[in-house]
Amino acid sequence: MSVLITNVGELVTNAPVDAVSVASPGPFAALSDAAIVLDGAKVAWTGPAARAPAADSRVDAAGRAVLPGFVDSHAHLVFAGERGAEFAARMAGRPYSAGGIRSTVAATRAATDDQLRANLTRLATEMLKQGTTTFECKSGYGLTVKDETRSVAIAADITPEVTYLGAHVVPAEFENDAAGYVDLVCGPMLAACAPSARWVDVFCERGAFGADEARAILRAGESAGLQARVHANQLGPGPGVQVAVEAEAASADHCTFLTDADVDALAASGGTVATLLPGVEFSTRQPYPDARRLLSAGVTVAIATDCNPGSCFTSSMPLCMALAVREMRMTTEEALWAATAGGAHALRRTDVGHLGTGARADLIMLDAPSHAYLAYRPGVPQIAGVWRGGEMVAGPAAG
Ligand SMILES: [Zn+2]
User: Is the pLDDT of residue 18 over 70?
Assistant: First the structure.
């Protein structure tokens, strides 16, 4: 079953024009007065509307923009409870610290599997309606073998991009035995979680895990078949980025407080993406990362939400793009690329984040003529339709 979407005002492909097939996302690229043909779950053709081939069905975009679906490469969605009061207190002057995670840990441990699944499903649906067609999901609010195991298993039912984050924070019961907790994370907890996960992550930060602990956790994860990603340099300068690059992690996330050596290490890395999470700085009233410095140095930059109940409870990639443009001085093209192709790089995915021939047919139709409207009209719902794997899953014609 093929679908022709034609009369597209701006078709962002992140792929070279007229390539027979495209193996991975390229630089930002867009066509005007364009068309795209989906065949089953894949993109079969893109080009000028006037040259579009016939298809089984036809959608008239009426001049609207069509973009790759967002790739949200950093989210914490398996949890129970909420922290609205903590947010309000923070806005009234109390600073954020890593210890707030423990209140969500208590609520998560007390929740049933069904409650965790229902909350995750609600958030995943919310993301899809806002154009996110691929998302990563971390554990990290269980912090016991049993609760981490069920967290990754519940996440694996809903996304292939599951991250084991037993090393989110040292739980209260190990307060005086951090080494004992690291042993648990690298031992029985890892063994139980690895079958449901693709990634291993560690919160390398003062108040969470130090460089040596982070290295040990990433090494253990790797020997269990997981690939590394790191929460790095969020709350202050520290070793996180260096640890991520050394471990050949797919991504160093946050990157708010970087030295020149950190930027150089990212630029020289073989593929460690700097994932910026501007919703966190917005929600914690912290300084934003210096995106221009990273881009000037040639670092690959992704934007993601970090959706979680503590430091940033937005699931909106359009909001994060708008913040990246307004607050971090990224161009609209850079921000859109970072939210699509950048996220794909951060997840080492070649099939998403672009609309080249052969890509997964994951795309968004905006109720606007160009991608710039995502930053130009912040806070306004503008997603007119979402296709995932070639099927319209949100929008007027979806079920
Ligand atoms: Zn995070």
Answer: no
Place of tokens 């460690």: 272
Cα(86)–Cα(354) distance, rounded to whole angstroms?
38
Dist. CA 64 → ligand 1 center (Å): 34
User: How far is 284 from 150, CA to CA, in rounded Å?
Assistant: 29
Q: Where are the domains of the chain?
A: 2-69+353-394, 71-346
The span from the CA of 191 to the CA of 189, in Å, is: 5
Q: Identify whether the C-beta of residue 356 lies closer than 8 Å to the C-beta of residue 13.
A: yes
Q: pLDDT tens-digit profile of 193-240?
A: 999 999 999 999 998 999 999 999 999 999 999 999 999 999 999 999
**CATH of region 2-69+353-394:** 2.30.40.10
Distance 278 CA to ligand 1 centre (A): 12
Distance in angstroms (rounded) separating the CA atoms of residues 60 and 7: 6
pLDDT at residue 191 tops 70: yes
Provide, rounded to the nearest whole percent, the portion of the chain with pLDDT above 90.
91
- CATH top-level class for 71-346? alpha beta
Ion ligand 1: residue ranges with CB closer than 5 A: 306
Span 343-359, mean pLDDT?
97
Q: How confident is the model at residue 368 (pLDDT cuts 50, 70, 90)?
A: very high
| End-to-end CA separation in angstroms for the chain | 17
The Cα 318–Cα 279 span in angstroms is 11
Q: Which residue type, as a one-letter code, is found at position 399?
A: G
**Please, which residues have CB within 8 angstroms of residue 140's CB and are 6 or more apart in sequence?**
76, 101, 148, 151, 165, 166, 167, 168, 169, 201, 203
Query: What pTM does this model have?
Result: 0.97
Report CA(93)–ligand 1 centroid distance (Å). 22
